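testing teh design pipeline on a random one, pls ignore if ur not involved
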């Protein structure tokens, strides 16, 4: 079975400080508190991250502190 690759670009406006959003999405401890599911990883370009108790696995492609997160990720499904 061949899986199709899909590229998704999404812009979301969240009424919160950029630093708080960035930390919630990248800091494993804060992400775990936010979602209630374990997250792991190091916040560095090229590093692997895992969220939702292993349901999501990804790699950071570009990180600009408090401004930009580019990542490739997929689910276990």
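output:
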């Amino acid at each position: 079975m061949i899986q199709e690759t899909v590229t998704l670009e999404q812009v979301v406006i969240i009424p919160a400080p950029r630093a708080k959003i960035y930390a919630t999405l990248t800091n494993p401890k804060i992400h775990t508190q936010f979602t209630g599911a374990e997250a792991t990883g190091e916040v560095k370009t090229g590093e692997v991250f895992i969220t939702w108790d292993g349901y999501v696995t990804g790699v950071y492609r570009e990180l600009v502190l408090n401004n930009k997160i580019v990542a490739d990720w997929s689910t276990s499904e």
